[in-house]
Amino acid sequence: MLFGVFFVLPFGLIVAYSFWVTIDYNVVHHWTLDNYRYFFSVSTYIHTMWATVWVSVVATAATIGIAFPFTYWLVRYVRRGALQRLLLVLVILPFWTSYLLRVYSWLNILGDQGAINRFLQWVHLTDHPVSFFLYDRPAVILVLVYLYFPFAVLTLYASLERFDWDQFKAAMDLGATPRTAIVRILLPQIRPGITTAVIFVFIPILGEYLTPQLVGGARGVMIGNLIVNFFTGAQYTRGAAAALLIAALVVILLIVFRRSLEVEDPYRA
Amino acid sequence: MREFEVVSPRARLARVLLGSWAIVIYVFLFTPIAVLVLFSFNANKYGTFPFTGWTGHWYAQVFSDYQIKDALYTTLRISAEVTVVATIVGTAAAFPLVRSRLPFRSGVRVGMTLPIMIPGLLIGVSLLVLLTSVFHLQLSEQTAVIGQAVYTTPFVVLLVAARLQGFDPALERAASDLGANRWRSMRYVVLPLIMPAIFAGALFAFTLSLDEFIITLFLIGAHNTLPIYIYTQVKFGITPEVNALASLLLAGSLCLIALAFTLPIAVRRMRRVVRA
């Protein structure tokens, strides 16, 4: 019950807020669609929203694309038991360390004062910091992949580990090439796992604030940054509308994919 | 080991390629952290490349900085409170989830795990609005505790629920057959069985709370936790001092997580030894 109070109630409130108006820093209970109209009337905001979706899609695809061959290797080629568990734990370990620090650690490498730039100057390839590596979308995507990689491996591992590899061998015995066996036998069976991984990676990225803030610069802005700006600027109702756009997207995704989601407990690994 | 005796050259190639891919991934995962730790010992006062020599100076500075000390105490206070709240609420919530025949049980289940999946930003702003405009609370450490508890409780629920589901319900029936009332079977049978999970949950909650950033940013008001302090410093660029502090924090959470993973196993082993 208590949980409901602190979880469901706030969201109801955000919904209401998004339809109210802020006048002179006070929220007035007057139902209107103005906040949404305002949001969609500013081209920068629309642009940011599309950029957010685009970044999330690319980062999610990259994460899964990188994680799948890895997890496949881990399950198929590493001896089951202590070694496999250890290798898995090593991947998941960063997930349990500070999220802020994991973003921050990239500044040491990519930043104006970071290792790459310093190195380039040191070997006199350039005499001023190249901000190519930082403050743009590629940097944001790189760091996002880094952040959410453990999520993807964990969910993919859970489904690959349960897969009956004898079927795989049977397919090959019947003349299937490895590729056919993967595409026709393996992938259809672990589809729920892949969907879960996509959702688990995609949803948090949609609401990402810190990564674009620290490594994204002006060109890497995502919708999370807009929301924070609205709220720190006391434009509560507009912020609520922007937040609700993300929340709506999240809920739609969850409803569409609810059948194929496998909610795994994080401890099982 | 699974048998793949018939190893064609192509299969071997696939194996080598995938293996190298795995190595690339481990490098990718640990390079940033390694660089961070390395630079925290770097004598170069810009905290970056080139590496000019080893020093423990930045660590000494971290330990003598009163702002950091202040932020550390705030962080520990908040985390301790969050741990207590999340552990009690989470354990209590796990029981109806596993035991009762609640209507919409799977719905409730998904609902409980939602805070893990929902972006923290949304939890932060919605709680901000609720606490300040509806309950008219001042932002303080306590509001941050509420926010972090919403986020960490589901982890405890998941752990305890998994354990509750895992043990043999016949044990409980046996206890009541032997004359134990509900309280006694709870106290002497159920609790000892789920204790490792509760403990692990508490440790997870504590670790997550130590590192929590975005929800805290919205709810803490004028105070500083360590992550918030680091964030304000990072805005002005990298300093070797922040690298040192970050390394310490990383080491701290790694120790806690190692504890959370190994403790339940250790406890079980110890019990077995005691019984024998």
In short:
The complex is a heterodimer of chains A (269) and B (276). With 269 residues, chain A is mainly alpha-helical.
Written description of the protein model:
The complex is a heterodimer of chains A (269) and B (276). Chain A has 269 residues and is mostly helical. Chain A has a single domain, classed as MetI-like (MetI-like fold, Orthogonal Bundle). Chain A contains 13 helices and two strands, in the order αββαααααααααααα. Chain A has helices at residues 2-18, 34-41, 43-77, 82-96, 99-110, 115-122, 137-162, 165-173, 178-189, 191-206, 210-216, 223-232, 236-257, and strands at 21-23, 26-28. In chain A, strands 1-2 form a two-stranded antiparallel sheet. In chain A, a hairpin with a 2-residue loop joins strand 1 and strand 2 (26-28). The longest helix of chain A is centred in the first third of the chain and has 35 residues, at 43-77. Chain B has 276 residues and is an all-alpha fold. Chain B has two domains: 1-40; 57-275, MetI-like fold. Chain B is built from eleven helices and no strands. Chain B has helices at residues 9-40, 57-64, 66-98, 105-117, 120-134, 141-166, 169-177, 182-211, 214-219, 226-234, 240-275. Chain B is globular and about 70 Å long. At the A-B interface, helix 1, helix 3, helix 4, helix 5 and helix 6 of A face helix 1, helix 4, helix 5, helix 6 and helix 8 of B.
Rounded mean pLDDT score of chain A: 76
Listing every helix as H and every strand as E from the N terminus to the C terminus, the arrangement of chain B reads HHHHHHHHHHH
How many helices of chain B? The count is 11
Question: What distance separates the N and C termini of chain B?
Answer: 33 Å
- Give the strand tally of chain A: 2
The termini of chain A sit apart by 30 Å
Could you give a short account of the major beta sheet of chain B?
none
Present the secondary structure layout.
The complex is a heterodimer of chains A (269) and B (276).
Chain A: H1 2-18, E1 21-23, E2 26-28, H2 34-41, H3 43-77, H4 82-96, H5 99-110, H6 115-122, H7 137-162, H8 165-173, H9 178-189, H10 191-206, H11 210-216, H12 223-232, H13 236-257
Antiparallel strand pairs in A: 1-2
Helix pairs in contact in A: 1-13, 2-13, 3-7, 3-10, 4-7, 5-7, 5-11, 7-10, 7-11, 8-9, 10-13, 12-13
Chain B: H1 9-40, H2 57-64, H3 66-98, H4 105-117, H5 120-134, H6 141-166, H7 169-177, H8 182-211, H9 214-219, H10 226-234, H11 240-275
Helix pairs in contact in B: 1-11, 2-11, 3-6, 3-8, 4-6, 5-6, 6-8, 7-8, 8-11
